[in-house]
Amino acid sequence: MRLKHFIVYSLIYIGLVGIFAFVQNASSYKVSLLGVGLELPVALWFVLPIIIFAILAIFHVAWSGIANFRQKQAIKNDEDIYENYAKEILLGIENDKKFKTDTFKTSNEITKFLSPWHTHSVNIANEDISEIINVLEKLKNGEVVELKKYKLNNDNPLVIQNEFNKLQENSSYAKEILKDKKTLDDELSKKAYEAALKTFSYFDIKKFPFEISKDDAFLLVERYAKEENFEMTKDDLLNLLIICDLDKYGYVNVAKSLNKKIEPDVLIALFNKLNSEKESASYAYLYLLYEFGMMEELKDILNYSDEYPEFEILMDLRDQGKNISANYFFR
Predict the structure, then answer these.
(1) Residue 132 resides in a domain
(2) Which UniProt keywords apply (predicted)?
């Protein structure tokens, strides 16, 4: 209630009480105190305490109004300070502002935390917000946190980051992320599939309904060549080599890497099949024939084609008694 309204209503109330008292008793009453007598109408004696109470109440309301006004002014000043402070924080300017009220205390600390240049610890009195800040810090540092109590949607960025952290902590979690996926339509799924390609067995990888790209196929072929326990059938390997769609040098390099894992006869047969599917694999096939000493087969091919000058040079040198590795042309 505004002060002027309070004064008006108080005067009306005092007037009504005085009139009612005067109607009931119009006589006077004398009070003596320390030899001093004071005679006033009974009605006035009746309303006098109310008048004193009203005066005190007016002073109280006035004082509260002044205090509220000063508080609002302080908040307004703090608002201006906070706006400048927020700009400075975002610009990376370290300047700890002093606020006259506690209104922006929590906002001040949250602004520090949300700054892209945030490096210092924050001190927030609100326990719930402080707990959330702690959760955000852990997520940012790659830790796995418990988010069930916050009842967040699956597409919430905190939930997604927590899934990334779980995947980073344990690559086998990729199976959980991808179990109901039909397409790789988000970054989390792509990251999980990438982890699966790098760590899962080929038997498990084949269970996923995703199309294998050139890069994926090349990664799997590299794993097969380098990892002793990573196995697949030769038909699967052939399909992956076809998907890789490499140039002649790429297929030669793959043939070199597979030479350490696959028996020569099997490897030559594999690249013979690949040669019938990919023309660019013909150099790799001839490379294997030369390196494994299958000279008759190599000559038969060279007799019907002039597209392989490197191998013709190698064969001419060999006929002259100079055995040079095919790696001279394919490094």
Answers:
(1) no
(2) Membrane, Transmembrane, Transmembrane helix
In a domain, 260, yes or no: yes
Considering its fold, how many domains does the chain have in total? 2
Short-list 42, 41, 53, CA closest to 13: 53
Is residue 97 classed as helix, strand or coil in its secondary structure?
coil
Q: Is 265 helix (H, G, I), strand (E, B) or coil?
A: helix
Q: What is the pLDDT of the chain when averaged over all its residues?
A: 84
C-alpha to C-alpha distance for 233 and 220, rounded to whole angstroms: 12
Tens digit of pLDDT for each residue in 242-288? 999 999 999 999 999 998 899 999 999 999 999 999 999 999 999 99
Place of tokens 């006098």: 48
Contact 142, 168 (CB under 8 A): yes
Strands 36-41 and 28-33: antiparallel
Average pLDDT over residues 152-161: 90
**Domain range holding 73?**
1-91
User: Would 256 be classed as within a structural domain?
Assistant: yes
Does residue 271 contact residue 242 with C-beta atoms inside 8 Å?
A: no
Q: For residue 167, give Cα distances in angstroms to 120, 189, 260.
A: 28, 10, 32
Domain-ending residue, one of 31, 59, 91 = 91
d(CA 223, CA 211): 18
Q: How far apart are CA 97 and CA 76, in angstroms?
A: 15
Q: At 29, which helix (H) or strand (E)? A: strand 28-33
Return the closest-CA partner of residue 109 out of 138, 88, 77, 133: 133
User: What does the pLDDT average to over 297-318?
Assistant: 85
* In-domain check, residue 202: no
Indicate the residue among 40, 71, 91 that finishes a domain.
Answer: 91
Which has more pLDDT, 51 or 166? 166
User: Alpha-carbon distance 162 to 177, whole Å?
Assistant: 12
Please choose, from the candidates 185, 215, 170, the residue with its C-alpha nearest in 3D space to the C-alpha of residue 197: 215
Nearest C-alpha neighbor of 235 from the set 269, 282, 197, 196? 269
Burial (CB < 10 A; 0-12, 13-18, 19+), residue 322, is: exposed
